[in-house]
Amino acid sequence: MSTLGHVRTELEAGAPNAVSRMLGLLGDEWNLLIVQQSLLGATRFGEYLARLPISNAVLTTRLRGLTGEAMLEQREYQVNPPRTEYLLTPRGRALWPMMLLIWDWERRWVPDHVAQLPAMRHDTCGALFTPLLTCGACTAPSTDTDVKLRWGPSGSWERSTPITVTRRRGGATGPPGLYPETMSVFGNRWSAAILIAAFLGASRFGDFQRQLGAPPASVSARLRAFVANGVLSGSDEYLLTDKGRAFFGVLVTALEWGQHWFHAPEGPAVVLTHRACGERFTARVACDQCAKALSGDDVLVETVTT
């Protein structure tokens, strides 16, 4: 079995940075949904097809891409005829904090969708819980107003433009799984980039278009969608709403994932500082019932009953 998913990717100096690589991989609806289902136990081609409204061709392309990026690895489970399954690598499994915070955001901010979401139980304390984003240095609960973001040595919008090697969503035959509103917010590379730009202070159309270098039509369409779903407010000036600000935990864990697994020789693309303690901010996701840090192995998914 490959060891690529156990080690970080070393980027070239001056090349697209960790933000660019993260946006290209996670700013894709199908990649997010495949990782989601992998974390929920899917490993085989037929299982993904049964769980997702995805065509054979699109699934084949995305599985190939995720394997090439060392987020999944193939293992043969049958010789005659040959059959393979797709297993999460440590790189892929490390996305569980982001996916857990997506679940919590959907549950809190998409009321029409709550009944479809499973409950989460913390195996350590036995309680149903809500994940809390806390500072890894001082363990204090943290929101976007508690964390300062600035560009680091490898950070700039020129180097952060999302790179993608797959076409946009195609071949869908139904609703996109457990996190439909997240897919409209984050499951598109330009949507994800615009949201990061908003947290970095952009608020006007010209700011977004100039900083991202995105096609004006794409920026306009994404801003309209964000206003329609309540993530941004305004028309001349686009400001994050409470709903939009609540997505900060998802973004910061995605950024940390990208910067851990894609290393630029100059240093990080984005530097995060916890204002209260003054230390470099690292995301610690904790149980709101016992305050202990969560791990992927001690989060249990409860069966949804109707």
Based on helices, strands and strand pairing, what is the structural class?
A: alpha+beta
What are the secondary-structure elements, in order, as H or E?
EHHHHEEHHEEEHHHHHEEHHEEEE
Strand numbers in spatial order across the main sheet:
1-9
Got a strand count?
12
Q: CA-to-CA gap between the ends? A: 41 Å
Q: In the residues, how many domains can be counted?
A: 1
Helix count, per DSSP?
A: 13
**What are the low-pLDDT stretches, counting only 5+ consecutive residues below 50?**
169-175
Largest sheet: 2 strands, parallel
Share of residues in helices: 25-40%
| Overall pLDDT metric | 90
Structural account:
This protein has helices at residues 18-26, 29-39, 45-51, 56-68, 90-93, 96-109, 157-160, 180-185, 189-199, 205-212, 216-228, 242-245, 248-261; strands spanning 9-10, 72-78, 83-88, 120-122, 131-135, 147-151, 232-233, 239-240, 262-263, 270-274, 283-287, 299-301. It has 306 residues and is an alpha+beta fold. It has one domain (4-301). The strands form 6 sheets. It has a two-stranded parallel ribbon with strand order 1-9. Strands 2-3 form a two-stranded antiparallel sheet. A hairpin with a 5-residue loop joins strand 7 and strand 8. Helix 1 packs across helix 9 (189-199), helix 1 (18-26) crosses helix 13 and helix 6 packs antiparallel against helix 13. The protein is globular and about 60 Å long.
